[in-house]
């Protein structure tokens, strides 16, 4: 099998298939958009395609950086396995000047992926992912998105010291390329809500924390 060359689209597998599709896509967006502009996220929930997703970047260097930085990253209790996708998305091909009727687009589905790209049969077309605006409020869930961390708080031990004061702390996930943000996961939605309420605006090592639900 020939080596897959770097391209705009990453193929992600070994995702937790118990997570609702929109929650999974939103969490993937928060993670991967730290490495560059994300054009689209495609995740199917059909039986043979569960636990897999495509992340489409606007530029290849962004995809490369995300692949190297997030390989084996633990998301919702499972380590992601990331590779370059075998097929360039239709969105990127069109952006590069190909026409919809071009033969080079033959064999791709509505999202621009060959059906054999997924480890299973593609039976449905997911809608294009549109991230929420900054003014929208996400529904309560177990995963918190922490922003405005100071450089002094950019290690797991410092964050654990603060967040373990609240019951139910499960996991702390840091982003190497952006030390001002982190994901904090709790056992229940109520526990996460208590933390969000209690530490919102809390001055931690020089910076006031901004906390939102990651969903």
TrEMBL record:
Presence of keyword Ribonucleoprotein: yes
CDD domains the UniProt entry points to: RRM1_U1A_like, RRM2_U1A_like
Main subcellular location of this protein, as a coarse class: nucleus
Residue span, RRM domain: 8-87, 142-215
Organism the protein comes from: Conidiobolus coronatus (strain ATCC 28846 / CBS 209.66 / NRRL 28638)
Keywords for the protein's UniProt record, in alphabetical order: mRNA processing, mRNA splicing, Nucleus, Repeat, Ribonucleoprotein, RNA-binding, Spliceosome
Keyword Nucleus in record: yes
SUPFAM superfamilies: RNA-binding domain, RBD
Protein name: U2 small nuclear ribonucleo protein B''-like protein
Locations listed in the record: Nucleus
InterPro entries from the UniProt entry: Nucleotide-bd_a/b_plait_sf (IPR012677), RBD_domain_sf (IPR035979), RRM_dom (IPR000504)
Molecular function GO terms recorded: RNA binding
Similarity comment text for this entry: Belongs to the RRM U1 A/B'' family.
GO biological process entries: mRNA processing; RNA splicing
Superkingdom of the source species: Eukaryota
Annotated GO CC locations: small nuclear ribonucleoprotein complex; spliceosomal complex
